[in-house]
């Protein structure tokens, strides 16, 4: 039985009667391209007939005497390469094509390809080369900029969207990128906030660009999160930036601020020669893998006895930050794994660095924002599952912070 929109077999046989090689079908002048052109132009003629009320060469049927008035030409860009088509015109200029709207120069889906390539870190020149190689379409840098600039309003809406009332865990970190500013290339800090929501899923809450990383700017970031609806955070995981914990506690006084242990270990190993790093790292691991805060402090004391004279700065760093290091000892193993490191945001930063490595610098903050936004949207599509052991962690939060949850 033949379906309503099924192409008759005899028609297909007729179309393919001269077929010998793939280029005859999908080449620059192949059947598919010719067929697309013919169908689009036939559809435009059908739209004009509907608009005027009469077919070509038939008597005028509309009351205002409007008739066909020749054709205009345009070239569409798409997966098929460049496709020149003729568009019928009417004498009154009131015809509005539907299948190929006025001012449209790309086929549906072509802009999405440009944005997808841009989001993966390809430069404008690389996008031009890729599209020309794949589709035989010559794309100007201006077109690529115009297509990607359409994302800017989307970025602004995303950055100001309302957020959940509670994020049990919040990760805060930054990545440094070179941006052209007032004629000079400067290293700027891109701040990222990733929250773990009540379902245990990661969510990028926003990105912010500043001249340098600093506690004062972090205070603005955290304040913005509060203004966008985040009323409480149980645990904030941060790196070792001076003044960072205080900035968080100013806005969320009940939040427990946990310094990233991985950052701390890395900073400690900066004082150690390469041949000694493995041994020192192993001894530091005994500290943060202790069962309790008391045991951890005992291990730190042992570390000081062993290495304090050779590497005095390491123990000093741990002692100075001790109250920010030990909060995760208040939680069972399933939560400790989640909060003693900012790995959740570090992996995002690594992905962002990959897409910026081919660029010497960005022409503006806006260009940086739209690329990072698109990249973050790509990255976050993979975050479909809750964190491992999240149910156990949530049960603990429900018990420990029940009064705070009920008050919201």
What does this structure look like?
With 408 residues, this protein is an alpha/beta fold. The protein contains 19 helices and seven strands. The strands form two sheets. The protein has a five-stranded mixed beta sheet with strand order 5-4-3-6-7, sandwiched between helices. It has a two-stranded antiparallel ribbon with strand order 1-2.
Helix content: 40-55%
Give helix and strand order, one letter per element, not per position: HHHEEHHHHEEEHEHEHHHHHHHHHH
Integer average pLDDT: 82
How many angstroms does the end-to-end distance come to? 61 Å
Sheet bearing the most strands, described?
5 strands, mixed
Which structural class do you get from the secondary structure elements? alpha/beta
Number of strands: 7
Radius of gyration: 30 Å
């Amino acid at each position: 039985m033949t379906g309503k929109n099924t192409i008759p077999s005899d028609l297909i046989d007729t179309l393919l009667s001269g077929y010998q090689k793939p280029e005859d079908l999908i080449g620059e002048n192949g059947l598919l391209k010719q067929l697309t052109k013919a169908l689009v132009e036939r559809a435009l003629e059908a739209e004009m007939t509907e608009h005027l009320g009469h077919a070509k060469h038939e008597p005028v049927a509309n009351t205002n005497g409007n008739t066909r008035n020749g054709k205009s030409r345009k070239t569409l860009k798409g997966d098929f390469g460049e496709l020149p088509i003729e568009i019928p015109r009417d004498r009154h200029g009131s015809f509005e094509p539907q299948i190929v709207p006025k001012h449209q120069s790309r086929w549906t889906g072509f802009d999405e390809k440009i944005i997808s390539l841009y989001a993966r870190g390809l430069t404008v020149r690389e996008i031009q080369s890729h599209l020309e190689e794949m589709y035989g379409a010559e794309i100007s840098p201006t077109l690529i900029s115009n297509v990607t600039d359409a994302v800017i309003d989307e970025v602004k809406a995303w950055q100001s969207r309302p957020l959940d009332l509670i994020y049990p865990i919040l990760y805060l970190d930054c990545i440094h990128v070179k941006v052209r500013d007032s004629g000079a290339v400067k290293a700027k800090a891109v701040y990222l906030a990733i929250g773990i929501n009540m379902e245990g899923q990661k969510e990028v809450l926003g990105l912010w660009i500043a001249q340098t990383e600093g506690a004062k700017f972090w205070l603005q970031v955290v304040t913005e999160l509060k203004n966008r609806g985040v009323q409480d955070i149980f645990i904030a995981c941060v790196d070792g930036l001076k003044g960072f914990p205080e900035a968080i506690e100013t806005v969320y006084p009940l939040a427990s601020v946990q310094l990233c242990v991985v950052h701390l270990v890395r900073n400690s190993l900066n004082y150690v020669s390469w041949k000694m790093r493995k041994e020192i790292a192993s001894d530091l691991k005994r500290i943060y893998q202790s069962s309790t805060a008391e045991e951890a402090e005992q291990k730190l004391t042992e570390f000081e006895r062993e290495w304090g004279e050779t590497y005095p700065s390491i123990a000093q760093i741990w002692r100075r930050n001790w109250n920010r290091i030990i909060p995760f000892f208040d939680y069972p193993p399933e939560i400790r794994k989640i909060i003693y490191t900012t790995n959740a945001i570090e992996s995002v930063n690594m992905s962002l660095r990959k897409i910026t490595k081919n660029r010497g610098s960005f022409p503006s903050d806006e260009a940086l924002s739209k690329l990072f936004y698109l990249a973050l949207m790509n990255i976050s599509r993979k975050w479909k599952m809750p964190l491992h052991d999240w149910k156990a962690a949530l049960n603990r939060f429900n018990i420990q912070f029940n009064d705070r949850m009920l008050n919201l």
